[in-house]
Amino acid sequence: MTTIKQNLVGLLLLSILIFGCKKNSSNEPVANEEIATAKPAPPPPPVHGICDYDISETVITAAGWTKTFGDDFSTILNSWNTWYGGAFNNELQLYQAPNLSVTNGNLVISARHETVTGPTTPFDATPKTFNYTSGRIESTTNFSASASTPVVRMMARIKLPAGYGMWPAFWSYGDPWPTQGEIDILEARGQEDNKYQTNYFYGRTANRNLVRGAEGFVNTDVSLQSCYHVYEMRWSQNDLKFYFDGVLVKTNSGSYVPSLFGKTERITLNLAVGGLFFSNFNPALVQTGTMYVDWVKVFIPVN
């Protein structure tokens, strides 16, 4: 019995060696090779934009909307509060009124390289030295998507600044942050002429954001810095829809979006210098630029 068992074991080992070597030497890929050589999905094509795009209020109102807020920046900034002081996110600028002007029907926000001293933030009067100045305004009117205004359309026509380290933004938020939410309709980097970002935040307690991975990256086939484009957000109970030159480019739903319903936010326009929005940021490379805002409008459905 022992001899027969040894012979059988020998035959079995020989069979494994023969067939095993044959399989491994074939041209058929194994599972791990298939995973390693799999190609990622191609990125979506750039969004088509129209240089100097504009809207028709007549068309919008005919479709059942009414304008509840509008500023074409033909007079003084009496619909806005001006931020004075530094900000957050490791930004480098002091926000101050001299960097804001109303010129030729535009709000002009200019970032400048200059050394000044001012309050650390509007909420902290501790003096701080800044190497850059810029401007930030916030609407005196608050807005809310709620039962009485189920959809709020915020839009602005903007020409973005060029220059490494420029961080222009068009957004809305309420206090205490982020319990009233924050919706970023437009954030861009001055060194990226054809790209911008959307985002939103929400938390139940101050300074604690619960939203993760809500960023939307929009690549365009047209310059954002050489001409004007219209950036829009439609805020409703179950989703946030973002539009570029009238084209839907991003929708956020779930993940605390319904928690924003009924909250109140004010519109903010600003041009930051540097900050956490940038990866591997090098302050020595900063190039200051100018942000132009042609108008801001808010529409809600006709009751």
Tell me what the structure shows.
The protein has helices spanning 2-24, 31-37, 57-62; strands at 65-71, 80-82, 93-95, 100-103, 106-110, 112-121, 124-134, 136-143, 152-159, 166-173, 182-187, 195-201, 216-219, 229-235, 239-244, 247-253, 265-273, 290-301. With 303 residues, the protein is mostly beta strands. The strands form three sheets. Strands 1, 4, 5, 9, 14, 15, 16 and 18 form an eight-stranded antiparallel beta sheet that branches. Strands 2-8-17-10-11-12-13 form a seven-stranded antiparallel beta sheet, with no helix packed on it. A three-stranded mixed beta sheet has the order 3-7-6, with no helix packed on it.
Strand content: 35-45%
Main beta sheet strand tally, sense and closure: 8 strands, antiparallel
What's the total number of strands? 18
* C-alpha geometry: globular
What's the helix-strand series? HHHEEEEEEEEEEEEEEEEEE
* Radius of gyration from CA coordinates: 27 Å
The structural class is mainly beta
* pLDDT < 50 runs, ≥5 residues: 1-37
Q: How many H/I helical runs?
A: 3
Oligomer: single chain
Mean pLDDT: 90
How much helix is in the residues?
A: 10-25%
How far apart the termini lie comes to 95 Å
